[in-house]
UniProtKB/TrEMBL annotation:
Domain of life: Bacteria
Keyword Cytoplasm in annotation: no
Lineage of producing organism: Bacteria, Pseudomonadati, Pseudomonadota, Alphaproteobacteria, Sphingomonadales
Signal peptide region: none
Transmembrane spans: 12-34, 54-78, 90-112, 132-163, 170-189, 195-214
Keywords on record: Membrane, Transmembrane, Transmembrane helix
Name the record gives this protein: DUF4386 family protein
Length: 223
């Protein structure tokens, strides 16, 4: 019998492509559509969020909640595609992948609930609302984007396991390792700007992975 199905690989491939598209959406929205000029200080951060509340809600739904769901599908689909008996490296990779899913979802839910709360508070206590929104931003960043250690470790271990067992093409694995290292290094003080490199690199990696999974579904036989 087959160790995984065509439907699982299609689901994983589509999930990878969605992850790439969500990154493109995020970069396009915050770098090309929304204009932060004139919004200075804590009060400016809150004013920006409230003036663009609909876009912020949409962004958190797509970049965190929908991305988290798609990532969960991809993590499991990759695990089942690559799995072999007692594969310690892959098991650790999948563990980090699922932890990343939880962190991304938690970050999105924190942002959504926090935005609703400060929007109500801002009507009566704007200064307190601005301070709370700043704190929410710190928590949200810590959970889902300020440090890419967990996602980088998942990606690194996936690529290492794939190189060892020749499960994914080299054009995915070796660039993937470099992108993963950039993400891992974001925990080092002063290296936070590498998060942008990690995100841009993952657009390419997720796209390539998605196309590969859709065009070359694994057909591994088990006894």
């Amino acid at each position: 019998m087959m160790s995984n199905s065509l439907s699982e690989n299609r689901a994983g491939g589509l999930a990878a492509l969605f992850c790439a598209l969500s990154y493109i959406f995020g970069f396009g929205l915050f770098l090309g559509v929304l204009d932060r000029s004139g919004y200075d200080g804590l009060s400016g951060d809150l004013a920006f969020a409230l003036d663009n509340q609909a876009a912020m809600v949409m962004a958190m739904i797509i970049l965190y909640l929908a991305f988290g769901v798609a990532l969960a599908v991809l993590v499991i689909a990759l695990h089942r595609r690559m799995a072999s008996d007692n594969d310690f490296t892959l098991q650790i990779a999948t563990s980090f992948g699922l932890v990343w899913v939880g962190l991304v979802l938690a970050s999105g839910m924190t942002g959504l609930v926090g935005l609703q709360s400060v929007a109500r508070m801002a009507l009566e206590e704007p200064q307190a609302a601005a301070t709370i929104w700043s704190s929410i931003g710190i928590v949200q960043s810590a959970l889902g984007g300020g440090i890419e250690l967990v996602g980088g470790l998942w990606m690194l271990l996936i690529c290492v396991a794939a190189i060892r067992d020749k499960l994914l093409p080299a054009w995915l694995n070796w660039p993937g390792i470099l992108i993963a290292i950039a993400g891992i290094c974001t925990f080092i003080p002063g290296m936070g700007d590498l998060a942008a490199i990690f995100g841009l690199g993952q657009i390419l990696w997720f796209t390539g992975l998605g196309v590969h999974m859709l065009r070359r579904p694994a057909m591994v036989l088990t006894t």
